[in-house]
Amino acid sequence: MVDPALRQQMLVAVPHLRAFAISLSGDVGYADDLVQSALMRGLEYIDKFQPGTSMQAWLFTILRNNYYSELRKYRREVEDPDGIMAGSLAVLPEQDACLDLNDMLAALAQLSVEQREVLLLVGAEGVSYEEAANICGTTLGTIKSRVNRARTRLAELLDLVPEEDLAPNRVIQATLAMHVSF
Amino acid sequence: MLLTVPRRPSETPGELQEPHAATSKELREPSFPPRVALCLGERLRAHYSQLMAEPIPEAFLQILDELDQKGRVDHG
C-alpha cells in the first residue's frame, strides 16, 4: 500500500501536472492521458521516490520523459513549422479569459518543445533553474539559454515587443523603456 | 536543436532528448527588457493559473483511490 502521505502529495501535484501537460502538448485530451500515465508510473515506481524531495518535480520528470519517448515513437513534429499543432488546438470551454488562454496555447505551440517545457517550468511553475535542469536532464547553462530564447520568441509571438527592440543594444533598450513607461 | 529558426531538415529520434551543450556564444544572450519580462511572466502565470483552476478529472482521483482500497484489502 502506498503511504497516504505520498498519495496526498501526488494528489496535490495533479493540477500542476495537468496545466503543464496541456501547455506542453497543446491538447487537453492527450494531456490527460499523459497525466494519467505519469500517475500510474509514479505509483508503480513509488519505491524509487526519495522521501524529502519534491514529489511534483519527480512526477514532472516522469511525465516529460514519457512525452518525449512518445514523440520519438510516433515521430510527431516537434517544431511544428507549419503550425499544424497550433491550428488543431483543443478549444477549452467558454470562459471569460478564454481568448487569452487560447492565444497563449497557440503562441506556446510555436516554440520548440524544449523551449516550451523550460518556459513552463521556470516561468509558470516557478521552479529554480537548477531544478529545471534536473527535470529536463540537462545543464544549467542549457536551461538558461533556452529560457532566454523561449521568452524572446514568445514575446514576439504575443506582440509584447517589436522584434527589433529585443536586440542587445542598450540604446534600443533605453528607447523601449521610455516608450513603455507611459 | 535549441533554435527556433525553421532550418531543421529532418527530425531524428536521437535529437529529441540530447541537446548539445551550451556554447559560450549561446550564453551571451541579449539581455531582455525587464518590463517585457514582467509582462510575459504575468501572462504566463495567468494562463497557467487558469488551467490549474480547472477541476481535477474524476479518473485521476480514482487511480489514487482504487490503489488505496486495493492496498487495504491486501493488508486486511
Task: Provide an overview of this structure.
The complex is a heterodimer of chains A (182) and B (76). Chain A has 182 residues and is mainly alpha-helical. Chain A has a single domain, classed as Butyryl-CoA Dehydrogenase, subunit A, domain 3, CATH 1.20.140.160. Chain A has nine helices and no strands. In chain A, α1 (4-25) packs antiparallel against α2 (28-44) and α3 packs across α7 (129-136). Chain B has 76 residues and is mostly helical. Chain B is 54% helix and 0% strand. Chain B has helices spanning 24-27, 34-52, 58-75. The longest helix of chain B is centred in the middle third of the chain and has 19 residues, at 34-52. Residues 1-20 and 22-29 of chain B have low confidence and may be disordered.
CATH architecture of chain A: Up-down Bundle
Coarse morphology of chain A: globular
How many beta strands in the DSSP annotation of chain B? 0
| Class computed from helices, strands and strand pairing of chain B | mainly alpha
Q: Kindly report the average pLDDT value of chain B.
A: 65
Q: In whole angstroms, how far apart are the ends of chain A?
A: 60 Å
Order of helices and strands of chain A: HHHHHHHHH
Mean pLDDT of chain A: 82
Morphology of chain B = rod-shaped
The beta-strand count of chain A equals 0
Rg of chain A, Cα atoms, Å: 18 Å
Radius of gyration of chain B: 22 Å
What percent of the residues of chain B sit in helical stretches (DSSP H or I)?
40-55%
Structural class of chain A: mainly alpha
Report the CATH C-level class of chain A: Mainly Alpha
Number of helices of chain B: 3
Q: How many domains of chain A, as an integer?
A: 1
